[in-house]
Structures are given as structure tokens and as C-alpha cells.
Amino acid sequence: MPKLVFYSDQILPQGEIIDQELLSLAGKPNPTFGFIPSACDGEYEYFQDRQAYYHRYGIHLGVYFELDNNYYPEILPSLLACDAIHLASGNTFHFLYWLQKRGLLPALRDYVEKGGILIGVNAGAILMTPDISTASLCGDAPCDPVMDLSALRLVDFAFVPHADKINGGFPVLRNYSIEHHLPVFACRDGDGIVIRDDSLIRFGQVIQIENGDIMQP
């Protein structure tokens, strides 16, 4: 099984228990993480905010790898050498478009297969699933010519962040699970999922829906 961390959003103190599980996954003091923004972060504001977030745990968020405006492929080996890679929040369609355009999906799958940890927040978490069709449920609108919604396919379920803010609520999630023939894990901000050691661990009030039915943990 891969080592994956799904956040609806990184919020303290609610998400601290997920953060501690992430530290345990890293398995070493002062690990180094890489960061892939969903879009150009011109003044590095979000990157610096996440640096401060991780710094409280002794984590060095040290490799910034932008896909669109400031793309430097020579940084890729340093990114893939990190203990974990953070896939940021933002517009999921834009994020997938640039991952496809830069040919990064196979490299990230290989990174996970070799033991690297992927951290997904919001859009980044959706990208770890078979496709990004749940992004529309969260209000994302296509903004690039993405023809193929296939994503990293690291798990066999769909992920819905900000679940308590979905227009239409549970009926929409229920219909999605039926129409797409996929289990759906829906998370509120502050909740999340960690996959490790052949186990899926839920944190917070994560709702699992299969074929229209809510499944008990």
C-alpha cells in the first residue's frame, strides 16, 4: 500500500492528530518535504504559510516546484528526493492540466511506489484518486483544456473535501457513488484520511458512501 495523507484542509488544532500520523509515516526527525502549488504562487505567500505550518513540527518544507509560470525541471530530482511531497490546494482542473502537461503523473506514481509520502490538501487530495470529477462538487470550474480527468489513481475511491459545504449535501454524494461506481469518502475541513501499512485510517467525522449507502467504520 502507498503512504498517503488526505486533508480536506490543514486546520489547527483539529488536524493536529493527522499531522502527528504524518510525522510517524516520515519515520525520522526533521524530515524534508517538497511542495507543488496548484498554480503560480508569485510572492510565495502560500508556500511560506505552509513552511510555517510544518516548521512547528520540525519539518523543513524546502523544495518549491512550480508547474506553470516558473517551471524549472532541473529541480525535479531534488523534489523526488524529499521524504514527502505536498500537493497544494487550489483549482483541481488547473492543477491536473499542468501535471499532465509537464508529464509529472508517472513520476509521482513512481515516487509513491518507491516509498515516498504524498500529502494532498483539497485539490491535491482529489488528485490522488482515480479522477478529479469530485472537484465539480466542491465548486471548482474547468479553466484549462483538460480532456482527460484521470489523475494519479493511487486509491480506488473518490475523495470529497469541504463535505459540509457541498451544494445539495448528502443526496449529491449518494448519486455520485451510484453513478461512478466508486466508494466516496467525504471530509469536513479539519478531518482527513491516512493510508499506511495496508490500512485506511479515518480522522474526524469522515463519511463513507458506497452505492448510495452510508457505510459504518
Give me the secondary-structure topology:
Layout: E1 3-7, H1 16-26, E2 32-36, H2 45-55, E3 60-64, H3 76-80, E4 84-87, H4 92-101, H5 104-113, E5 117-121, H6 123-126, E6 158-160, H7 169-180, E7 184-186, E8 192-196, E9 199-203, E10 207-210, E11 213-215
Parallel strand pairs: 1-5, 2-3, 2-4, 4-5, 6-7
Antiparallel strand pairs: 1-8, 7-10, 8-9, 10-11
Description:
The chain has 217 residues and is of the alpha/beta class. The protein has one domain: Rossmann fold (3-Layer(aba) Sandwich), CATH 3.40.50. Helices cover 29% and strands 22% of the residues. The chain has helices spanning 16-26, 45-55, 76-80, 92-101, 104-113, 123-126, 169-180; strands at 3-7, 32-36, 60-64, 84-87, 117-121, 158-160, 184-186, 192-196, 199-203, 207-210, 213-215. Strands 3-2-4-5-1-8-9 form a seven-stranded mixed sheet, with helices on both faces.
Q: What structural class do the secondary elements suggest?
A: alpha/beta
Domains, number? 1
The first-to-last residue Cα distance is 19 Å
CATH topology: Rossmann fold
Instruction: Identify the CATH homologous superfamily.
Output: Class I glutamine amidotransferase (GATase) domain
Instruction: Please give the CATH class.
Output: Alpha Beta
Percent of residues in beta strands?
15-25%
Label the overall shape.
globular
CATH architecture identity = 3-Layer(aba) Sandwich
Strand order of the largest sheet: 3-2-4-5-1-8-9
How many strands in all? 11
Query: What is the CA-based Rg, rounded?
Result: 16 Å
